[in-house]
Each structure stands twice: as structure tokens, then as C-alpha cells.
Amino acid sequence: MVHPFLFMKQFDFDFVVVGSGLAGLLAAYHASAHGTVALISKSELDVSNSYHAQGGIAAAIGADDDPLFHFNDTLTAGRGLCDHDSVHILVNEGLERVRELIGMGMKFDKEANGELVLGLEGGHTHRRILHADGDATGKEMTGFMLHKIRLDPNITTFEYTTAVKIFARDGVCSGIQTLDYNTGKNALFRTRATILATGGLSRIYARSTNPYTATGDGFALAWQAGAQMADMEFIQFHPTALSIDGEEAYLISEAVRGEGAHLMDINGLRFMVPLHPMAELAPRDVVASAIFKRMQETGSTVYLSLQHLNAEFLQERFHSIDARLQSVGIDLTKDLIPISPAAHYTVGGIRTDEWGQTNIIGLFACGEVASTGVMGANRLASNSLLECLVYGKRIVEQAKELPDATGDLFPIEMIALHPESDDTYLKIKNELSQLMSSKVGIVRNHKEMSEALTRINLIEKQYPENLTDYNGKKIHELATVCKLICISALERKESRGGHVRSDFPRELDEFVYHILQEREKPLASENVRNTIAP
User: Fold this and answer.
1) Which of 77, 83, 303, 429 could cross-link with 336 by S-S, CB 3.0 to 4.6 Å?
2) pLDDT-derived band of residue 50, with 50, 70 and 90 as boundaries?
3) Residues 200, 65 within the same domain
4) Are residues 97 and 230 in the same domain?
5) What is the pLDDT of residue 338?
């Protein structure tokens, strides 16, 4: 019998980048200076969390600001779990990367006098949020980089193509296997450096601000290959997503509160004022938890009010949000906007060092899928695009030193598309999303998380890893990601950042460490790095 492996087309590239968000685009751009690059996207190149980012990118670029202030704000938001050396890299190299990007021609919004417009967001003590075209920063930045990618002869793009297997043996990664959604064909990519920039997993929750592609593929593939995961219990719920029956959880940017919007309950009370010195501009975990609690107390949603602000300024600054709200009959300048928290950002992820290298040689991760140590227990607003800039380049500095890939990729089964199993996949995906939302959501406890884990384990066993039906494989991956979150959340018996437990409501000093998970190994911990290398 001839093995189907022999019928798979094989490509050889110096670098393979999986994911076309800002992290992936930057990694591909920098890598192209050192060799050939394959850029793989499971949808169109412009479908990503980065593309939908409204608020902007944080950098201590203002005359009254300093990277040290940005460093301290990041540590405060991270609730004691930020690795200091990684944050030092982020805020200092981040400033360099932003200036570099501006030098490349990226245009951020400016005042009439030519000075950059700098916004304020939750957790920041200074105005340091650069934005482009008002509330379309992600779209503008990814569009800017996509233009450069498409003009680069060293970069070959593969759209509607998903990674289905990472080849790793004896601690070394040699490439990936992919599936083309349009043709159903499998292909092999041999490379010296595989860079995962696959984004987050918030679509495993019923209510999410993320595009439909954010289902955690990269986490599951890396886990199966033997990569170490860190801090998977920390899921950031964005406090202010549009809350209307029958409508998607459309993001209302943090920058709206940065410009003075108030949070009000059904009784017209500004409930954040007595809860935190920064009121509506408290870090996201504080605001999301407060909204959740107030909704439970009043039995109603809460609202954003901008009625006291300048209408003309709001419509110009937040034109995308204004247009979306108008489509559902809400006037940004006059009406109360119904909001509630929604799953937004994966704080933990694939554990990497300060160069984006995982515990597997040749396998790198950057962007939301990675756990570089900069986010701690709760991401500081608008640090995510900055992390993409910094680590998208640092990865290449390390990866370019690896030797060229040699030898053959070991045989693997072909993954096939079976449309007849689509309904089963959607049914189980919806079940898992409801399960995660109801039992492993904003506020958690041992009983409900244990119940969720029991059901997730059953699904994982029913759909084992070795299935060749793509839908069955996807179900297994979804269950794997949900399981990793549950296990880590059960282990952390405290409330910290994006992990809030009703049965352990306080933050405890004895839990100031990262929780690590690795396949076929017991749970482990790693001390937070509190020093900065000279």
C-alpha cells in the first residue's frame, strides 16, 4: 500500500509563519531579509484580532512620559506576575520599534501642530496610546504591513490554509503539515524556523469580541508537539462590549473611557467611582469584575454614557464605533450604550524565552498565542500591538541563526474535509462555548470548573487526537484548549487579574508564580523573574 504521505506536496522555506495578525506580518517582514518565508493564514490575510484592534498601541513617546512609567504601569496591571526583564524589553524596545515603524511610513493621528495625538486608557498613568484613523488603528497597521508583505518577493502567502500538525521530534521542530480549505489538499512545509502567530482563543466562549478564527488552534498544535504552556487560567474579558440580544459582542474601545465616558448602572449610578481611584480607567480586570457584580446585583446590563462629552469630537475620534452603533439605532453622543464584558484576550499561552523561542528548538511563538512574561495576570490596555512589534523582530534575530532544515519530514496521515460532519462540529463547539462561559467565565469556583472539566474530558476521549476528519480533529483541539484552561484555573486557588474565584476571593502571596503545563508531565511552577539583566 502506498502511503498518502507520498502524495503530499512538500515546500521548503527558510521561515514558516503561521498567522497573519500583526505579529505574524512583522515576523514575516523581518524574516524576509534573511531568507524565503511562507506566510500561512486560515482565512484572508486581513482577518485577525490585530485588524479589529480599535484602541491603539502604547508607547512612552510623549514629552512627559518615560519607559520607566510604562514599565511600572504594566507591572501594576499584571498583578505581580509580569517577568520584569520581559517588560523592560517591551517598553524600551517597543519605543524603538514604534519610531522605526513611523520611519517606514506608518501614519498615526496627529494634532494640527504636527504632534502625535496620544490617548489615555485604563491602567495608564500617562497619555501614551498612539492611534490611526481614530478608532481603526489595528486595521491601519495591519494594512500598512500587508502592503509591504505583498510587495516582498521573498514572501509567499497561503490563504485559506490551516496548520494541522507540527513536526517535532527529540525536541527539535522541522516544519508543519497544512490543509487547504479550497482544494482539500494537504501539504508539508520544511523549515528551520516555525513561527506561530495564530492569535488567541476567545471564540471558545459564547460571547467574544474576537473574529470567528480565534479558536485556539496554535495552542493545541503546540501542546500536541510538546511545547510548554504557561498561565492558561488568565483570560481577559473586555469590560465594554455592546450587549444587545441577537447582536455580536461588538467591542467598544477602552479609548472611549479614556476620553471621559462614564459607566452607569440601570439606576443611573456611576458605580466605579467608589470602587477604584481611577474609576472607569481602572485596569480591565477590575472594571470587568465590577460590571459583572453590578449586573448580578441589579439584574440588568450596565451602560456607557458619553452624553456629557463633545459630540463632534466623539464622531470624528470614534467614527467606526459610531457607525456600528448607528446601525443598531444607537446615537453615540446622546444614548446610553448597553454593554457587558466579553472574552477578549488570552493572557497566558505558549511559554517562550525573551527571544520568542519555545522549549522546542526551531519552534517560536509571538503575539497573543505566546506567553512571553510581559502580560502577567492581566494585560495592560494597548500593550498587545506593542508586543507584536517587539517580539515579531526579536524572534527573527534568534531564528536566523538556526541551521538550514535537513532530512525528510516523518510520515503522517492526511487530514480530510468531510462536510457531513460540519453540523456535529458546530453543535459541540457551541456546547463547549456555553460550558466555558457558564462555568469557567469571569467569576469561577471549584464545583463548576470541575463539572466543566468532567464533560470536556469526555468530549476529548470521544474525539481522539489521531482522527483524520478535520472536524473531529478540531473538536479534539477545542477540548484540549478548554482542558488546559480548566486545569490551570483549578490549580490557582486565589483571585488575581483575569482569574477570579468566588471560593478564593483574595490575592495570595503564595501564588506569585507561573503555572506551567507540559504534555505527559505533572503541573509545574516557575518563579516570576523580578530582576533585569544588565
Assistant:
1) 303
2) low
3) yes
4) yes
5) 95
3-state secondary structure of 263: strand
Residues 179 and 296 in one domain: no
Among candidate residues 190, 207, 284, 501, the one labeled active-site is 284
Give, in order, the Cα–Cα distances in Å from 379 to each of 99, 123, 255, 329.
23, 10, 15, 32
Cell 483574595 locates to: 506
Do 124 and 31 fall within a single domain?
yes
**CATH number of the structural domain spanning residue 30:** 3.50.50.60
Respond yes or no: is residue 284 known to be catalytic.
yes
Q: Decide if pLDDT at 1 tops 60.
A: no
pLDDT of residue 139: 86
Judged against a pLDDT cut of 70, whether residue 294 lies above it is answered with yes
Name the amino acid, one letter, at 399: A
Q: For 100-115, what is each residue's pLDDT tens digit?
A: 999 999 999 999 899 9
Q: How far apart are CA 108 and CA 118, in angstroms?
A: 10
Domain that holds residue 441: 419-506+515-520
Prediction pTM value: 0.93
- Amino acid 533: pLDDT: 62
Q: How far apart are the first and last CA of the chain?
A: 60
